[in-house]
Design brief:
mainly alpha, 2 strands
């Protein structure tokens, strides 16, 4: 059977395994990201090994441009694409409930827009239930309504992600976790070490001969922006329930000092990532899911931007219109999180923990 024909009949996992075995024999890229040192630790690769390596990959693409076996060579190595497809397939396989698997990836832009508009309309209609008195946001939507909606919308997706991570850990053969493994994994995640591709000048995601840390910086802006926004919400919750200090909060309060820079980083980082995605080669990733990934990035950025717009509108009648839109974006983000690329952060952290165990 011709090599090209045989390759087309391989499953996603089998194709990734074929390429990884060639990489393991070559070892030219051994000094690149964490994937290649992990490959050299073994001679054969189970399905769980492929899943682990796929989630360890950050798609920096340096290995592709350095490889001598890419097309038109008969081996046709395209490891970033093979691992991206195996990685996405694993997320869909581990998603719970499975009925939503792949839904966002296939029609992300339309689904995100529909959810934001739909939820915003519901929040706008819910303003009819607002109390006769209230300050800040609570003058437009009662605190009890917000809590009643967002508590399950936050906890249920976390449960779905936790179940997916448990299935992932079983498949990759994860051992009991020690503190040292967690510390190493969180340290590497905080620096996004593997987005440098093992090269001091960064990765070449955008262009073959251009090494840059721009993609790494945008990812860090989104990651830390999201964490700051989450910390802002957490601090406001503590102030409300522990210290009996309900919103609204002043400019120099902890929720605002965390939330404003968080929103700026989330918005700008998300827009930067969207621009980079338009410049990168689609064929070096899971090209069929490009639209879903772009929709997720734009949803992140819109959530941050609408939060900043809401702050700017504070004290005006515009709050009644901006608040439903922002809450709709946040609710859409929470509910779709287990089925969008948002899960890559959780699975890559798990992959880093597993890699720390193995190395």
């Amino acid at each position: 059977m011709p090599l090209d024909q045989a390759r087309t009949e391989l499953s996603t996992t089998e194709e990734a395994r074929r390429q990884i075995e060639i990489c393991n024999a070559c070892r030219y890229c051994e000094g690149y990201c964490s994937v290649f040192p992990a490959i050299t630790l073994q001679r054969s690769f189970s399905d769980g090994d492929i899943t682990q390596l796929a989630n360890l990959c950050h798609n920096c693409r340096g290995c592709y441009y350095a490889c001598q076996y890419t097309d038109p060579h008969e081996f046709q190595i395209n490891l970033p694409k093979a691992l991206a497809e195996a990685r996405t397939e694993s997320w869909e396989r581990f998603s719970w409930p499975g009925v939503f698997s792949g839904l966002f990836q296939k029609s992300g832009v339309a689904l995100a827009a529909a959810l934001i508009v739909g939820f915003a309309a519901l929040f706008w209609a819910g303003q009819a239930l607002r109390p006769e008195s209230g300050e800040g946001f609570y003058a437009f939507l009662s605190h009890s309504v917000m809590i009643g909606i967002f508590t399950p919308a936050f906890l249920l997706p976390l449960l779905a992600i936790a179940l997916g991570l448990r299935a992932y850990w079983r498949e990759v053969g994860g051992a009991p976790v020690r503190l040292a493994y967690l510390v190493r994994a969180f340290r590497e995640a905080a620096r996004l070490k593997d987005l440098s591709g093992g090269v001091a000048g960064g990765c070449n995601f955008e262009k073959e001969d251009r090494y840059t840390n721009v993609r790494r910086w945008h990812h860090q802006a989104v990651m830390y922006g999201f964490l700051l926004c989450f910390a802002s919400t957490g601090s406001a919750t503590i102030l409300h329930y522990v210290f009996d200090m309900p919103a609204p909060y002043g400019l120099f309060s902890l929720p605002k000092l965390l939330g404003i820079p968080g929103g700026v980083l989330l918005t700008l980082g998300g827009l930067g990532m969207a621009v980079l995605k338009t410049r990168g080669e689609k064929n070096l990733g899971a090209s069929a899911l490009w639209g879903g990934e772009m929709a997720f990035v734009l949803l992140l950025s819109f959530t941050g931007a609408s939060g900043l717009a809401l702050y700017a509108a504070t004290g005006t009648a515009l709050v009644g219109w901006v608040l439903p839109v922002h809450l709709g974006a946040v609710l859409a983000f929470f509910l779709t999180a287990p089925y969008t690329k948002m899960v890559h952060g959780f699975f890559r952290l798990a992959a880093l923990v597993r890699n720390a165990q193995q190395t």
